[in-house]
Amino acid sequence: MPSSKSPRLLPPIANAIAPPWYYRAAIGTLKPLYRLQVHKRSAARDNYHDEVAERFGSAYRKPSQLPSIGQASTQTGTQTNTWTDAPLLWCHAVSLGETNTVAPLLDVLLGAGYRIWLTNTTQTGHARTQKRFAEALASGQMQHSYVPVDAPTVIKQFLAHVQPAAALFVETELWANTLYLLNKQHIPSILVNGRLSEASFTRYQKIAKVSASMMHNLTCIIAQDEQSATRFKALGAPAEKVKIGRSLKWVINGNTKPSLPESIQNAFATIDRPIWVAASTHEGEEQIALDWQQQLLQDAKSADALLILVPRHPERFDAAAQMVQASGLSVARRSLKESIQPSTQVYLADTMGELMAWYQLADVALVGGSLVDVGGHNPVEPAGVGTPVLMGSYTYSCQEVVDELAAVGALQQATAATDTRADYATAAEHLYPQLFAWLTQPERAIAAGQAGAQLTEMRQSALTDQLGIIDEVLTQYSHITPLPLNLADPAATAVKDAP
Predict the structure, then answer these.
(1) Cys bridge to 466: 137, 245, 286, 349, which one at CB 3.0-4.6 A?
(2) Distance CA 321, CA 332 (A)
(3) Per-residue pLDDT tens digits for 457-470
(4) Which domain holds residue 346?
(5) Which residues carry out catalysis?
(6) In the predicted structure, residue 322 carries a pLDDT above the cut 90
(7) Where is the 3-deoxy-D-manno-octulosonic-acid transferase N-terminal domain (predicted)?
């Protein structure tokens, strides 16, 4: 805990800086158009009324409606922890990737007794929260909704419902009206695992006054690397607000190897073939993976290779299946419970929430979002379970992690002469030889995987670093009574929820 003499961070109301008028006007103009877009996108689903209500602040389940102490509790072994009078923290994670990244941190906060209200922007992120935090949601210790739009009337309604003691935003999801109203209401806001790529920095510079207001209204920025910290300061963040903590992407798997679901164990129990996975793929990447698979099958050394194909978004599952069939490769679909035969060449993992199982089964992992201009998904997921990694040139979302894994030989990245969308078509000539080498020389793949697993274990301090900064901020607000965190061994108090 910080000393009682630590300077208070609570600013007077006058210190909150409103976004420029043109930003507020733009939000007001776009709000009805966004509502129409949400309605069209969600109307095919049964719960679209709930989504619209949550995004526009018309209906939430209030924390005060939760069961009172004595009626509900979380229980681990013989120890019962009550939490319904504990501080509530609002955490916003945009999509699946951010939800996975912040999950270990939220596990510790839940284990300490905090209540959490978690919001997502995308339907993929929303579905992941429902699965990942099923136990906490069922008990009522965690609440969940879509994020409210950044319109003052909606944000005020949301804050009145939730009444958070503090707000956590994951990576780079910042909204000017929201940060202004949080500051105005004396609610500390913390950017967790803050990341600001060169491209994002350039975009924020184009709206300099909006960016400056956000940097001012944020209470604390925990940047995941020196480059991001420098860019946040260049946008106007006071140096004393910017801290550096290593990326939470390193601790996404924790220190334990996840167990395989029984159905997957049974499906692969008798398979003795080289297996590689193309995971979290986007449009354009599946075809590259299928081309590589066809090359592997044409070589006697890798003719029995099996590709596990895992598209990132469920709405693309059927399109991916059609693409595999059009390629002439034999396919089995996970969603249809089709078994893997000796003749099966591609296994389409068209289900959600099982990505870590595919990484664990594979001898080599191609991490998607990196062959096309998405920014790259988290390579620590496969590296943490000892699987060597291939990635394309588009890794600006996780570049520091990529560089560290590459330095120890756990990751091979394609190098691009240019940064244009057309350039990803040349990725095969950079990465295919390494895929072939790792699949046909398993001792090399095992050594590379072990190097990645060892580095991941060394980087687990990122969790305690960021938790310590959050704890320090909370102690400096008189209206918050922080709960004790076991920073020496955060895993000892973390809630163990669904993988």
Answers:
(1) 245
(2) 9
(3) 998 889 999 999 99
(4) 262-457
(5) 98
(6) yes
(7) 76-250
